[in-house]
């Protein structure tokens, strides 16, 4: 019953979505009266979809094997967390999650955005509904998650063991929140272009959605990166794999948009550019989904590949992006920037930031798609880290250098280029560069520059706080400083990981000692262990360097349903880095393959990523808090804000 | 005016490529770029005492084709394919080896246990020859004809099922 009920709820929601589109269009053409119904419709629609999604989780929780999707992706012997996470660890479930987030953010937008002009609001909600309809059609017509199996299965087929990991239970929902949150910015841009009201008010309505999506994208990418780092057992945190790039491209677009939407809000400038970025952000989310789902690119992370569904997504994205770009080409000529600015100014620096980010986005996009392009020409090529590191690295470093001056520049007209902390940071970086040579570190140019720029950037990023009362600094500024400081930490971590990592690959027998960097690892032996739905060989490694030993227990796990082998890397974190151990194949007599890494300062990557996310959160919460206080003040003074409609 | 529709054109070209990728028959097998190319220049020291090392010059001045096997004593699939290489050597196929990131004592132990099909055995402590040959790991096997041109490239361990293709390429290289 539950499955049928949820299926019905989805159809009902789809009908409401269609209604939302119709009413939105009517309101846009001047039928103000009926547009009042749009907000409740958006809310009820979201409620229905959330109910359906909750029902799916319930079916997975109970392992209802009469539902085809559960039988294909779950198993009664799976731990509860992964039973629940299994609900979105497959194509149908993840599309339902996508729709849940899409309608949910649409409803939040409809409920809480009160300041935007009525016609623009109606047009944006119509655009949001138009996107929704396509995904409703996709879900209901070709990916119904509630299909029954008759007769029902005796046992489920299980979930890909690589996905049975706490990191992965939360990584997709987080990324989806980011991907789909960008749809609101997309709809707002479309709505504003249609009504010709691109300006600061629009930017202020758009900003929290961009910031929120950006926070989720950052956190989601970090979680995914950390998952790949310890679960795949390859010792790296980023492989420039197509699926990773698919998540990175919307992030880059959102980062650029975040900076340009600020210019639009504060100075009413960069209108066309900001609209373009708002379109690109969600477009990149759809392109990414297409690349991941269609299987046209070979990837280690492609978990739900189906060319037919790929074709459906391709159709949707062509339609939506195409329509939006048509509107852009047709309407944007009427948009004029009102505030001129000099090259050396806050606007100038943000334009430079945007241009660099756009070039980086284009290069990632080209690199990701190049193998297909080359294959169309009859060549087989794979584009990997050498390309990406070589072309993206230098641009990212220029972007980092821009941060020495940008945040401290004034609007419109620049004043002095360097602040005292900016100069101090630059001197620190120069000194660090000399030190890397004096210490005779054997590094590549990018690693050397990265290690030099990072400490200076950390210092210079504090410049906006210079001369301020820390307690009275506006939260958005604090957030910006924390995020930029996080970038410096992240840069240091990446350069150190790349430059100083020590790796050993050995075939070792119990009792052998292996040297990795400053550590001596003693291989104590192996023993069998068993988990709820797996058995494993576990190695015991005693690592020491002067001080007391650390115990590492990497596992090679065998899952029976479906039959798969995974390696569970063992990590030991010390103050200055991480030891990383993976056990491969082997036997008692011949020894075991052990892969051991010492990664100095790698922890800075996660710390830096955390700071970047935290910075975004501080800014977002600060803006909400400010808005709330403003409204309370207005309410207290007896003035009631006029509701737009 | 045209400039404003440029993004739309970019989208359409992306869609065109995507449609091609979705519909075209595409090769699953990864072809090696180096097949048909001369062996890149390398000169490896002997990996163990009593056996000559291996250089690209050795391969270019050989009578007839040779098999070049990239392996390592720490690599388990290499053990799996060892009997097959022994059998081929027994049939009179000349085989040279490249030991990747290995130690002489380990190589000796490996050859003791799994047989020694190699005429020459080069030591590649930093995977340089392996990478120059376009190999992504161990084991991989090449057929190099008498003039030093790569004629066949097999990735992963040789299995009995791979033998027909290997033999066909061998005949062609003669």
TrEMBL record, chain A:
Pfam families given in the database record: CcmF_C, Cytochrom_C_asm
Source organism per UniProt: Sphingomicrobium lutaoense
Domain of life: Bacteria
UniProt record, GO biological process: cytochrome complex assembly
Membrane topology, from the record: Multi-pass membrane protein
Keyword Acetylation: no
Role of this protein: Required for the biogenesis of c-type cytochromes. Possible subunit of a heme lyase.
InterPro entries for the chain: CcmF_C (IPR032523), Cyt_c_assembly (IPR002541), Cyt_c_biogenesis (IPR003567), Cyt_c_biogenesis_CcmF (IPR003568)
Designated name of the protein: Cytochrome c-type biogenesis protein CcmF
Domain Cytochrome c-type biogenesis protein CcmF C-terminal: 314-623
Cellular localization per UniProt: Cell inner membrane
MF term (GO), any: heme binding
This protein's UniProt keywords: Cell inner membrane, Cell membrane, Cytochrome c-type biogenesis, Membrane, Transmembrane, Transmembrane helix
Membrane-spanning intervals of the chain: 6-28, 40-61, 95-112, 124-142, 176-202, 209-228, 248-266, 273-292, 312-330, 351-374, 386-405, 417-439, 445-465, 477-496, 604-625
Family: Belongs to the CcmF/CycK/Ccl1/NrfE/CcsA family.
Sequence ranges assigned to domain Cytochrome c assembly protein in this UniProt record: 88-294
Example of a GO cellular component annotation carried by this entry: plasma membrane
Chief place where the protein resides: membrane
TrEMBL record, chain B:
Keywords of the record: Cytochrome c-type biogenesis, Disulfide bond, Redox-active center
InterPro entries in alphabetical order: AhpC/TSA, Periplasmic_diS_OxRdtase_DsbE, Thioredoxin-like_sf, Thioredoxin_CS, Thioredoxin_domain, Thioredoxin_ResA/DsbE_sf
Keyword Transmembrane appears in the UniProt entry: no
Pfam families: AhpC-TSA
Biological process annotations from GO: cytochrome complex assembly
CC annotations in GO: outer membrane-bounded periplasmic space
Protein's name in the database: Cytochrome c biogenesis protein CcmG/thiol:disulfide interchange protein DsbE
Source organism: Sphingomicrobium lutaoense
Lineage, opening ranks: Bacteria, Pseudomonadati, Pseudomonadota, Alphaproteobacteria, Sphingomonadales
């Amino acid at each position: 019953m539950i499955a049928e009920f949820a299926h019905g709820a989805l159809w009902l929601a789809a009908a409401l979505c269609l209604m939302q589109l119709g009413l939105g269009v009517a309101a846009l053409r001047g039928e103000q009266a009926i547009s009042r119904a749009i907000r409740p419709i958006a809310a009820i629609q979201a409620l229905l979809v959330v109910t359906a999604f909750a029902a799916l989780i319930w079916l997975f929780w109970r392992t209802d094997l009469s539902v085809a999707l559960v039988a294909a992706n779950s198993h009664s012997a799976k731990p509860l967390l992964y039973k629940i996470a299994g609900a979105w660890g497959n194509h149908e479930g993840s599309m339902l999650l996508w729709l849940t987030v899409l309608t949910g953010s649409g409803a939040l937008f409809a409920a809480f955005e009160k300041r935007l002009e009525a016609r623009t609001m109606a047009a944006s909600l119509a655009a949001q509904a138009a996107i929704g309809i396509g995904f409703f059609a996709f879900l209901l017509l070709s990916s119904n998650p509630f299909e029954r199996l008759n007769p029902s299965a005796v046992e489920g087929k299980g979930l890909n063991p690589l996905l049975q990991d706490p990191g992965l239970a939360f990584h997709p929902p987080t990324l989806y929140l980011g991907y789909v949150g960008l749809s609101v910015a997309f709809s707002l841009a479309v709505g504003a272009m249609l009504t010709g009201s691109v300006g600061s008010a629009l930017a202020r309505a758009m900003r929290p959605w961009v910031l929120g999506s950006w926070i989720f994208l950052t956190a989601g990418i970090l979680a995914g990166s950390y998952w790949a780092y310890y679960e795949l057992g390859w010792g790296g945190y980023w492989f420039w794999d197509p699926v990773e790039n698919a998540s990175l491209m919307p992030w880059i677009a959102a980062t650029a948009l975040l900076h340009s939407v600020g210019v639009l809000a504060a100075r009413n400038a960069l209108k066309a550019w900001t609209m373009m970025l708002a379109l690109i952000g969600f477009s990149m989310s759809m392109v990414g989904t297409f690349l991941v789902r269609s299987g046209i690119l070979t990837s280690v992370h492609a978990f739900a590949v189906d060319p037919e569904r790929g074709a459906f997504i391709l159709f949707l994205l062509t339609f939506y992006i195409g329509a939006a770009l048509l509107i852009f080409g047709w309407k944007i000529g009427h948009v004029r920037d009102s505030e001129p600015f000099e090259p050396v100014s806050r606007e100038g620096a943000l334009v430079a930031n945007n241009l660099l980010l756009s070039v980086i986005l284009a290069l990632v996009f080209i690199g990701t798609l190049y193998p297909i392009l080359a294959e169309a020409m009859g060549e087989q090529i794979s584009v990997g880290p050498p390309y990406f590191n070589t072309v993206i690295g230098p641009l990212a470093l220029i972007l980092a250098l821009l941060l020495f001056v940008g945040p401290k520049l004034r609007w419109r007209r620049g004043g002095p280029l360097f602040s005292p902390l900016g100069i101090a940071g630059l001197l620190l970086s120069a000194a660090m560069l000399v030190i890397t040579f004096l210490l005779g570190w054997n590094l590549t140019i990018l690693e050397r520059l990265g290690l030099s720029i990072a400490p200076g950037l950390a210092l210079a990023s504090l410049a906006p706080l210079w001369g301020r009362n820390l307690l009275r600094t506006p939260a958005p500024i604090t957030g910006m400083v924390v995020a930029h400081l996080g970038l410096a930490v992240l840069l240091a971590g990446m350069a150190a990981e790349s430059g100083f990592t020590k790796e050993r690959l050995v075939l070792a027998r119990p009792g052998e000692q292996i040297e990795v960097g400053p550590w001596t690892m003693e291989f104590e032996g192996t023993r069998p262990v068993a988990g709820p739905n797996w058995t494993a060989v576990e190695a015991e490694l005693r690592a020491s360097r002067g001080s007391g030993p650390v115990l590492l227990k990497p596992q090679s796990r065998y899952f029976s349903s479906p039959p798969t082998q995974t390696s569970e890397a063992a990590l030991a974190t010390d103050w200055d880095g991480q030891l990383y151990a993976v056990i491969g194949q082997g036997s008692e007599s011949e020894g075991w393959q052990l892969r051991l890494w010492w990664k100095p300062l790698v922890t800075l990557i996660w710390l830096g990523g955390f700071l970047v996310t935290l910075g975004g959160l501080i800014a977002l919460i600060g803006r909400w808090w400010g808005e709330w206080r403003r409204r309370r003040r207005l309410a207290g003074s007896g003035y009631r804000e006029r509701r737009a409609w | 005016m045209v400039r404003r529709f440029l993004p739309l054109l970019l989208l359409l070209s992306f869609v065109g490529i995507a449609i091609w990728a979705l519909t075209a028959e595409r090769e699953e097998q990864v072809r090696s770029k180096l097949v048909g190319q001369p062996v890149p220049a390398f000169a490896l020291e002997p990996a163990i005492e009593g056996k000559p090392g291996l250089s690209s010059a050795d391969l270019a001045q050989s009578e007839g084709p040779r098999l070049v096997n990239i392996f390592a004593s720490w690599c388990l699939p290499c053990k799996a394919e060892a009997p097959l290489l022994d059998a081929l050597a027994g049939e009179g196929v000349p085989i040279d080896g490249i030991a990747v990131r290995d130690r002489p004592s380990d190589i000796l132990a490996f050859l003791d246990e799994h047989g020694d099909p190699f005429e020459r055995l080069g030591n590649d402590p930093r995977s340089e020859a392996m990478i120059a040959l376009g190999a992504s790991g161990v084991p991989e096997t090449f057929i190099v004809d008498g003039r030093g041109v790569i004629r066949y490239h097999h990735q992963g361990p040789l299995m009995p099922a791979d033998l027909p293709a290997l033999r066909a390429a061998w005949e062609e290289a003669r």
